[in-house]
Amino acid sequence: MEIVRIVSEAQELHQDGVDHNATVMDSNPPFFATYKSLFSSCRGSRNEEAELLAVECDLPLIDLGRLNSKLEAKQCKQEIITAAAEWGFFQIVNHGVSNSLLGRLRRQQVNMFRQPFKKKVLDFSDDSYRWGTPTATSLKQLSWSEAYHIPLSSANKLARTSRCVIEEFCVAMAQLANQLVDTLAEGLGRDGTYIRENCRRNTCYLRLNHYPPCPLPGEVFGLVPHTDSDFLTVLCQDTVCGLQLKKAGRWVTVKPNPNALIVNVGDLFQAWSNGLYKSVEHRVMSNPHLERFSVAYFVCPSKETFIQSSAQPAIYRKFSFGEYRQQVQQDVRLTGHKIGLTRFLA
């Protein structure tokens, strides 16, 4: 099938969505119009990587309430350490973030994304609202998603109703993240002081994600394959399937668990742990019928913070977070994808 026909049919589906739910569709970014040249140059070829079948899996599930038990705390910590080393991902329950707070945040998030597209673009003056992939040179590099990327230092720019719930959520997430950082550092025979002191409010950030229905799910990812460039990410997702991760060279689909948060190791923790903890490649698949929402809290240091393992011999050379980010951005511009830690081998 010619790509022109595929796009035409997709646009008809898109228009059909407008007829049934004008408010929602009017709020979605103009993917087809903006990336018209990518669709036109595709020549109808399928994104084979996006179409690879993935098995469904349950991530390791850890009850953090056991950390409060003298009898179970040690075993609970070991489960966290093992999951970070073997999977790079795990789920947590009894994490201290209330369902009421999560519900209020989700309602606020939906309201923010249901605004008209033009209003979202004007919401922030510092490029906090983002969508698509400006650097994409092919469809496999395009993410069919939009997000509010909110540095916690600039959260006061939000409307008061949004700011209040986001402030409360970030306080709860910071406490949770510090608890996890301490446990993972303990697994290395270290403590989490260095990470906690360098990953403060003014360097961490929140990302509110929205994945609109995509008429071409076999052509475009919701979010392209990548690893996270932070120490740790804590994710709250809805019940719509989409998240996949690489396990033993194969993509696996994560079953949504409405009662759990997902934690994944970032590049910096992999380097700091000398490769013990794994920053695992993951992606989000697009969905032709359902929209998907998620919220990610990223534990990031200042640009001046140096990352160095205490283990010898060290796999990675010493580098600053600023240097790492600059290299990642340069690689994405030049190659269309992130290369990451292999650039920093000792």
TrEMBL record:
Gene3D superfamilies: B-lactam Antibiotic, Isopenicillin N Synthase, Chain. InterPro entries: DIOX_N, IPNS-like_FE2OG_OXY, IPNS-like_sf, Iron_ascorbate_oxido_reductase, Oxoglu/Fe-dep_dioxygenase_dom. GO terms for molecular function: metal ion binding; oxidoreductase activity. Residues 202-301 form the Fe2OG dioxygenase domain. It holds the Pfam family 2OG-FeII_Oxy. Belongs to the iron/ascorbate-dependent oxidoreductase family. This is Fe2OG dioxygenase domain-containing protein.
